[in-house]
Amino acid sequence: MKNQIYLILLVLALVILIPTASAQLTLGVEANQKIIEVELNKSEMVNVKHVIATSNMPVNLNLFDGIILESIIVTNENGDEKEFALINDGKGNTSMTIFPSKSDIIIKYNIEDASTLYENLWTVRIEYSETFSIIFSEEIDLIFLNTNIIQLGDKKGILVNSGGNALIQYYDKIPKIIEEVRLEEEKFNVEIITNSKIDKFNFDQASKSISFQVNEKNKFVTVTMEEELLESPYSILLNNEKIPYTKSVNKENYVSLSIKPQAIGKIMITNFEYSNDLTKITSDDTLPVETTSNDYFIWLVFGGILIIVAIIVIIIMRKIKK
Question: What whole-number percentage of the chain has pLDDT above 70?
Fold first, then answer.
């Protein structure tokens, strides 16, 4: 009798632990992930670390895409290796099952095809379904996250809250140009970081504007200067047309403005009050978001309904004729 009871309990446990709504067979519950870290440096190798909280039951977690199976190391806090199982759903998605442990579990592995170097710019594409952090090596300070400029400063990295896709870019070797300008009796340095060829740099005291020529398109251009030189709000123009930019305050009294010109031509950075006759953009700090009129969707839905009604009428008419 007792054996039958134990068997029933075991079957019930398996029914609970194996989710029937998923096509992927797993044994256990979702892991409580205390830490999810992606480590980036100036190499094609991307390192990942998960720290899983102790559990009396088997736990499951999804791994990042592109995992190198030979690189997987699973240990407890003391460095002792722990048993695990890998499950592949046949679509390239890999998950891991960790067996019960009385201490936290540390999982480390490398992923491939996530980081590439092209024309002095590292590009990393990372995707995960939960909140994760990206930690950078000390040699990396300036990064672009989905085209937004970030000066890391004394911070080690960034947090991708609630997970999702992250496009991170950073220079292999910083292509820096320093230009000295004079405002009244004071001297200021203007720093330009870009892979694009720059010439014809000029600072106009009368209009409080900085201008230069960019000779390549679709490349980041970051201008860093003291705020006193050109006080905000700013306007940035490419061939006399306003373009979006992102702003970062990396240290006291300094500001960095980043653009990605879509054409070759003259760049002008000016104080807002000297360009009131120009077309304004929504914000001087963030990239504008393209929106679509609600009228378009209304007409689209209305048109779809008409098509469905027409099809139903045709079907009914054919049945009547028969």
Answer: 75
Cα distances (Å, whole numbers) of residue 178 to 228, 252, 254: 17, 19, 15
Q: Count up the domains in the chain and report the number.
A: 2
As a residue count, the chain comes to: 322
Q: Are residues 78 and 206 in the same domain?
A: no
Q: What six digits make up the tokens of 103? A: 């201490």
Q: pLDDT grade, residue 92 (50/70/90)?
A: confident
Q: What is the pLDDT of residues 202-213, one digit of tens each?
A: 999 888 899 999
Q: When comparing pLDDT for 272 and 42, which is higher?
A: 42
Contact (Cβ atoms closer than 8 angstroms) between residue 114 and residue 125: yes
**Do 36 and 105 share a domain, yes or no?**
yes
Edge-first strand order for the sheet with 115-118 is: 115-118, 121-128, 164-171, 142-145, 148-151
CB–CB of 167/146 below 8 Å? Answer: yes
Assess whether 242 and 153 both reside in one domain: no
Helix, strand, or coil here: 298?
helix
30 contact partners, CB below 8 Å, separation of at least 6: 59, 60, 61
**Is position 302 within any domain?**
no
Mean pLDDT, the chain, as a whole number?
81
| 179 close to 144: Cβ distance less than 8 angstroms | no
Whichever domain contains 100, its CATH number is 2.60.40.3650
Query: At 270, which amino acid appears?
Result: T
SS3 8: helix
Query: At CA 178, angle to CA 144 and CA 207, rounded to 5?
Result: 90
Same domain, 34 and 167: yes
| Distance of alpha carbon 275 from alpha carbon 160, whole angstroms | 37
Range of the domain at 38: 27-171
How far apart CA 82 and CA 96 sit, in angstroms, is 12
* 46 lies in the same domain as 127: yes
Q: Assess if residue 131 is contained within a domain.
A: yes
Q: Are residues 180 and 167 in the same domain?
A: no
- Asked if residue 140 belongs to a domain, the reply is yes
Quick one: what percent of the chain has pLDDT higher than 90? 58
